[in-house]
Design goal:
Length: about 280
């Protein structure tokens, strides 16, 4: 494959709805920038057609694909194997064609970790993470695998918080505990890294987490997963408190960088991908 210059290599995305479109623009920008004759195609796939979609990707020799909700768990039986973190999470958002076999990886948490590593190594660090959904699960597992000292999950519902804490305690070496989100939660002194992995802020740059903003201290790293809009109330408050801030674009861009590396072997330039996303979201 790839010996014929006229041939395009294909990767794609299986999603319901068009929420993969910013990713399409970002990945295609990277392909163009690096002179790769590759295409990234967003395909709307319903749950009942997922099996056929994966068969189609195999038949067409796709080099891999992303998959988003609702396919992240149900895609697993259609794959040939899983990477370490995807095994622990039980969720896949990126399949990679390795020697004709589709191997499932999870780049959600890896993308977050890569953007975090640009400012701090979580090894030995104390983490407070808001949220216990899919993004939180991916981030929590990667932070634990990266050697975080402890992880406090703060979540509105115990019903989602408890299984995440159980999973972290049973499958990683990082001790995790649950705080069912009280009013005006104060981030404990000594916390190194604060993560918003809830959907609060999505589509509303003024939506606030119910926290005591004064408990955010200089020296803390505060990261938000929200990409739309990239400037959230949390990131602005944290900046005003003197914290180091990471926006959600970093996670999305680095997921793209990791995906492109898995599929093509190339280290994509994140600046090109950020530029494209900023055009879309701002
Ligand atoms: P889920 O629906 O799986 O989880 C949502 C989480 O947010 C739950 O913990 C939920 O708590 C919490 N939550 C939602 N609303 C409130 C509220 N008003 N008050 C308190 N808690 C609330 O979503 P995902 O985990 O899949 O996604 C979360 C966010 O992460 C989304 O906005 C998504 O866009 C973003 N994301 C960003 C990525 C990036 O690359 N930057 C990648 C993936 C996701 P409860 O359990 O109580 O319902």
């Amino acid at each position: 494959m790839g010996s014929n210059n006229f041939r395009s290599e294909l990767v794609g995305s299986f999603s319901e709805g068009s929420n993969g479109n910013p990713t399409v623009a970002m990945i295609e920008a990277a392909f163009r920038h690096h002179g790769l004759n590759w295409r990234y195609i967003n395909c709307e796939v319903t749950p009942e057609n997922l099996s056929d979609a994966v068969k189609g990707a195999r038949a067409m020799g796709w080099r891999g694909f992303n998959c988003s909700i609702p396919h992240k768990v149900t895609v697993i039986p259609h794959l040939d194997g899983l990477g370490e973190s995807a095994t622990i999470m039980g969720a896949v958002n990126c399949a990679v064609n390795r020697d004709g076999k589709f191997i499932g990886e999870n780049t959600d948490g890896k993308g977050f970790l890569k953007s975090l590593l640009e400012v701090v190594d979580p090894k030995g660090k104390t983490v407070v993470m808001f949220g216990a959904g899919g993004a939180a699960r991916a981030i929590g597992v990667e932070l634990a695998l990266a050697g975080a000292k402890s992880l406090t999950v703060v979540n509105r519902s115990a019903s989602r918080g408890e299984p995440l804490v159980k999973l972290l305690n049973e499958k990683t070496k990082t001790p995790a505990s649950l705080v069912v989100w009280p009013k005006n939660y104060a981030v404990p002194e000594g916390t190194d890294i604060v993560v918003n992995a809830t959907s609060i802020g999505l589509g509303d740059g003024n939506a606030a987490l119910d926290i005591d903003v004064n408990s955010l201290k200089p020296g803390m790293v505060v990261a938000d997963v929200i990409v739309d809009p990239p400037s959230t109330k949390l990131t602005r408050d944290a900046k005003a408190q003197g914290c180091t801030v990471i926006d959600g674009l970093g996670m999305l861009i680095n997921q793209g960088v990791i995906g492109v590396k898995y599929w093509t072997g190339i280290d994509a330039d994140p600046a090109v991908m950020r530029k494209k996303l900023v055009e879309i979201f701002e």
